[in-house]
Structures are given as structure tokens and as C-alpha cells.
## 1
Amino acid sequence: MSLVTDTGRWLLDGAHWTGPDGVPARLTEHLVLSGASVLVAAALALPLAFWLGHIGRGGFVVVGLANASRAVPTFAVLIILVATPVGFGDRATVVALVLFAIPAILTNAYTGVRDVDRDARAAAEGMGMSGLQVLRRVEAPLALPLVLAGLRTASVQVIATATLAAYVGGGGLGRFIADGFGRADPAMTAAGGVLVAALALLTEVVLGAVQRRATPGPRGRRPAVAVGVPAAQV
Amino acid sequence: MLLLADRSGPVLAQDEFPNPWVSVDYVRDNADAILAATRQHVTLTLVSVTLGLVLAVPLALLARRFRRLETPVVGFTGVLYTIPSLALFAVLAPVTGLTATTVVIGLTAYTLLVLVRNLLAGLDGVSEDVREAARGMGVGPVRMLLRVELPLALPTVLAGLRIATVSTVALVTVGVVVGHGGLGQLIFSGFNNNLYRAEIFTATAACVLLALAADALLLGLERLVTPWARR
């Protein structure tokens, strides 16, 4: 079990926690890359999802997109992007991450708005609310649990996928895995794996807690479960 | 370099050294390599999904027999699913080496969430009346499972199997980090080969087609074995 001790020793070595190649720097890169991608994906997907859910159309396209995205390997899209004018590094990674974060956010927000109780919608319209008011003051709040579920699913997926950035010359925690394999340094490889896995699990737990707090209703209730199956974790 | 050298001339470098996305020549000249990579891709997928099913069935039955185990079992498969495959390969590789085994262990782990969840949902969906009727006809617990419950759960189970298979086909490509990524090997070799677009695109297209073909095949199987579900 010397690998376990070696990995532990690598993680506890102070030299690995400083400088531009240190864990904090790589973790920051990873989080910035992931955060930016989720924000861009949300900015693109949420308005579209709200609009489609509000008019109650396009479900076929939304679900089809989610299913189709599962068949396309993220790794392949990343490499294809590098071979286009997008080029190497973080830019290709962000584009790929955004593309693969959209389906989860879109499907969940769309389903949330579409499935708002018909009576609640009718009551709001009866009070003289305009379409936009109904969306803003009735549908969006009622859809919140699913919107958050979609954002959580997308975030965990993006954190996982951002690891691939290292293979196209980008930063992030994936560097430890890529460099570890490159230098045949098992302790470094495994340490990178442990860090990425821990970050993904932590994100899941923290965002689950955020989701629970933001969801009205009795305390201790489970947060809404995202609809559909998230795209596989890269 | 090439681009700079050609700046003066009227012809762009891209034209003199074309790097098209689609190239019949590439496919013809590399048919053997493409076939070998596809074969590896299919094998890794088949082995992983089969192993996943073999593990998921007892896990689901256990969770159903002892309801207290349901939360830990489903939770465990959820944790496995949350761990990024690249991270899992990185932790496994120092132990299991740069082998197909590493890839299979990781991919099998990922199929469990969907398979267990859909097995449970399918079995839970069997109506109590149906069970009651079967019991009244003298059907024992084993026959109940094999002849009544599993057939009725089949559409849900197969839906899960389709999702698991399609995801696995896409995920095999990540196996490239341990040298066993099926068509992912070609994608990455195209990347290392000065961004050889034909190689990258051909392998990607083959990968997507493989996923779609697997999906269609399982959909056909579903129709075949559940004729009562047809409208």
C-alpha cells in the first residue's frame, strides 16, 4: 500500500501547495474555468428555457438536445475545437464546457416552468398580470427548485470535465493528472485524481445544501432531483 | 513557419497543405487502424455495460428486499457517478496499470447509478394487483421475480440500459489517458499529429455513430421483447 502513503505524502508536501504549479493556484484556475463556463451556459440557457416553458413549446427539441449531447464525447468536441480557430488552451475548454452544461440547465428550467400548476397560472392571469409578469412572479419562483437542480447538475459535470483542459494545454487540477501520467509519477497522478474527485463531491454536497436552503417549504426536505440523467462525468 | 513563408505568394498555406475535416483518402488509407480502434471501443463498451448489469441486478434486488439498504445502495452508486472518470482512472492507474482493466473498472462504476435506479423503478412500478393475482395462482417468489416482475419491469430497465450504453460509448474516449480509449486513441493521435483534422473528425463521427447504432439496437430489442407495450 505504498501508493496510498506516497499519495498522502505528496498531498501533505508543503512544496506542492505553493507557487504557480501549486494546488491552490491550480484549484483557482479550475474554479474560475468552471465558474465562468456555468455562468455563460446559464446566461444562454435560462432565458431560452423560461421562454419555451412559458409558451409550453419546444419540449421535443429540449429533450432531444439532452439525449443527443449524451452521445457526443466531450473529449472529442474539445479536440475538434482546438483544431478550429478557437485554438488551444482555456478558450477551447470554456466553449466545450458551456456546450455540455447547456442541456442540463435547459431541460430542468424548461420542465420547471412548463409544469407550473395550471391553476396558479390562470389565477395570475385573472389578476391581470401580463405574460412577463406571470413568468417573473409566478412561474420562475415556482420553477426555482428545478432550476437550481439543473444548475447543480451542470456545475458538478463542468467541474469534472474541466479536468480535460490540461490535455489541450490549459490549466486546472487536471494538470496534476496529465503531468503525473507524463512523468510516470503515480503519486502525483493519484493525488490529482483525489483532488478532482474531492472537488466534485464537495461541489455536489455544497450546492445541494444551497438548493435546500433556497427552496421554500418544510426544513429537512430533500432538494429537488434533476430531471433526466445528467451527461456522463468525464 | 509555412504560413509565413507563403505570405508573399497569392496562395494561402491552407490551400497548399490542405487539412480537410472530411477525407476519403484518410479513411481508405487507415481503414485497418479505424477498424481496430472501433473494435476496441465496442469491446470496452460491451464488457463494461455487461459487468455493470451483472452488478446492478443483485444490488437492486438487495435494496428492494431490505428497504433500509436502498438509500445507502443508491447513494453509493451516486457517489461513484459523481467522481470524474479522469480522476478515477488517475487513482486506479497506479494500481491496475495502463490497461484496459482500468478503463473497464471506471466505466462499469458509471453504469451502476442508472441501471440500479431504473431496475428499482421498474420493479416498484409492478402493480400490487398483478402480484396478488400471481400469488393466487400459486406462483412462488423466484418465479414471481423471473416470470412476472422482471418482464413487467423490462421497458424501464431497458430504457436505463440504453442511457448507460450511450454514455459509456462516449466515455470510452477518456480511456485515452491510460492508452485504451478505443476511437479516442485516434482522436488524440490526430491532436498530437499536428491537428490532423481528418483523423479527429473521422474518429469522432465513428464514435457518435456507434452510440446511435447501439441506441437503435437496444430500442429494437426493447420492442422485440416487450410486444405488449406496443400500441
## 2
Amino acid sequence: MVPEPFVVRSKRQDTSDTWTLELTSVADDAGLHFAPGQFTMIEAGGSGEVPISISGDPGEPDVLVHTVRSVGLATQAICKAQPGQVLGVRGPFGNSWPVELLEGRDVVVAAGGIGLAPLRPAILAMIANRERYGRLVLLYGARTASQMLYVDELERWREEGFEVHATVDSAGPEWLGHVGVVTRLIGRARLTASFAGLTCGPEIMMRLTALALADFGIDGEQLYVSTERNMQCGIGHCGHCQLGPWLLCRDGPVFDWQTLAHWLQLRDV
Amino acid sequence: MQALDELIAHVPTFAGLSEEQLKLIGGCGRNRHIGAGEMLFAEGDPADHFFLIRRGLVALEVHAPGRGPLRIETLEHGEVVGWSWLFAPYRWQLDARALEACELIEFDAACLRGKVAEDHELGYQLMSRFAANVISRLQATRFQLLDVYGKSEVTA
């Protein structure tokens, strides 16, 4: 599968090491239709491809939005891309957050760090159909206040029907919100067994979130996680992302926790 | 106006205690209002009271020379502020500051320690509940120390 050319239309710095890029297709005005939770394989300047979750609004497929953290050569090249530069994009790939399946339910979204980026399309999709859901709760944990993503949007999401709880791991006197780990928010959000959950963040954060949610009756079958370990081809051919019986790029990246928990908790894997 | 024993009956730390035990605990408490920015207690001070938050947000802080107050954790509605009143030498190890106007129940630690000395069942119940609190917050602190959102994270 050959990468399609996408041009960078705009770029915004979110944190010290994270940028959000808006891209449009060079060849196709229709853009890239995607479901919340899907990802693309993206490359800039011959620095190699990486899987990046789509973080845009699924209702606006003409603009492809990616929030990217600069952690290696490939992501560094993407983050350095300037408006007008052309990047190679393959996809969208993978399955999606089950936002339609969860209609009629209370939903808690638990995000850690840049894990909010893959969840943003699901949040926007649920807001677009707010009347189809019960309580919608966002629990967001970040390292510091300056490392939080989409700060301007958090208040808007609150106005549009999400209960938004944010916390940071450490803070100085200027921060007047919560300090502590994201799982501490679970007890404060008055969750019940009526909730289903979506979570994305560091694996250890997702594991502890699953444990904490279970204390409130939200078991592993009601909790969906997204993981992108070792993806390389994006289409299930290379086998790099195999985890147990699953190829994460083809069968995921979204799984219910019950399905993946055993494999994610294996040591040395 | 609701009696203190009725107010604390629904708080996780005290839930499940008998009416009599709740009355004993409530008898050592009083309502208190604290304004935004005011200190509940300061590191090194005698731990002669502790608090239950009815409304508002309280920060636990450590003061570091040259760095100002470092915020360790925040606590809110339904949570207890303070453990040091339970253990000798009964001195606060941290600062506690109201980040917004707070409605609190302040408990007299000497009063409650006296009742616990006479009623070991009450002492056991309180110790079990505060130990659960300590464990839960210790585990959260360990998680916090891992810095899980650091550079090693590559998701997305």
C-alpha cells in the first residue's frame, strides 16, 4: 500500500514536545473518512513510518488531524514539518472505539498524557450525539498542567455535556485544580456499574485504571483500551505488533480489557 | 440542622460504624469554614485535630527552599485530611492549604484519642479505616512517583 500525499495546512504546539498538525489530501478533496480510534501510518522526510492515532473530528473528514509527541526520529520529523510540507499517509487502519455500541449507556473516558489524543474523536462523536448517552465523564491525568492537551477544549466539552475531571502528577502554587494520579479521580466521579469505559494512556495507567474501575463494578468486558505496541506495517502483514493471538494493528488497536489483560500483564513481553 | 454524626455517617471513612460510634466521633467535631488560601495546618505543628471536607478543595504541600510550595496531592468532598493525629509524636509532616473556600468538620484529636483509649472496638474500627486510607493513598503516591507520562511513553 503506497502512502498518499497529504499537505500540512496548520500546526500548533500543544506542549513542550507535542504538536497538532492539520493535513489535507493532495489528491482527493473528500479527505479521509475514519472512525474514532483508527490510526494512520505517517512519515515525513524519509525518517520512517509510525502509527499515529487520528485525533480529529470524525464529522469533519476533510481535515486529517494528528497530535504527535516527539519521542524518536520519525515523530521528530513529523513534529518539525511546516505548513506546506507534504507528508506520506497510509490508512486509516484498525478498528474503532465502540461509540455506537455504547449509546444509551453512561460512559467514562479515562485518559493519561497523550492518551487523550486517540480519545478525542470518540469524545467529539459522543458530544455530537449527546442525547444518545447517559452521563459522560472524562477523567484526564497529565504530568503537569503545562503538559495537558487541548486545554481550551476541556471547558467547551464541559459545556457540551461532559463532566470533566482533570488532575496532574505535580504542580506549583499556580495550579488550582487536582493533584494526584488519574485513578484517584475515579472515586470522586461517583461512577457506578452502569458505566462503560474507554481508556488510553501508558499501559501501566490503563492497568491501574482497569483495577480501580473494577472496584466500582465496571468490569473488563465493559472497559475498552487502545494500544499500539510495536506497530510497523499497519495492515497485519509484518507481525511486529503480535501480542498473543492478536495482531494489534489488524485486530485492534481497540480491545476490551478482558480480552487483552492477560497479554498486557505478561512480563518480558 | 443535621447533627455531625448524621453528616459523617455517609462518608466512606466512617460508613458502616454503629450509631453509638458515630455519636462518639461526632461529639469530638465542630463545623468550620476556611477561606481560600488559608492553612489548615503547617508542617511541624502539633497534630491536635484533623478534618473532613464537606465542600471545597484542600492541597497537601511541602515547602522547598527556593522552590516555594510543592503540591503533592489534593483532597475534596468526603475525604479526610490528616493522619498524624493518630500516631506519636502527633506532628504534621506536611502543610495543608485550602485552594478554595472550604466547609469542614474539624475533629479534636485529643478528644477522640481519649475515647479510643476507653473503647478499643472504636479504636480498631477507626484504625482499620484510616489504614485503608493510608494504603490507598500510598499506592496512588507510588504510581505518581513512576512518572508514567514521561518520555518512555510512546502511545499515539
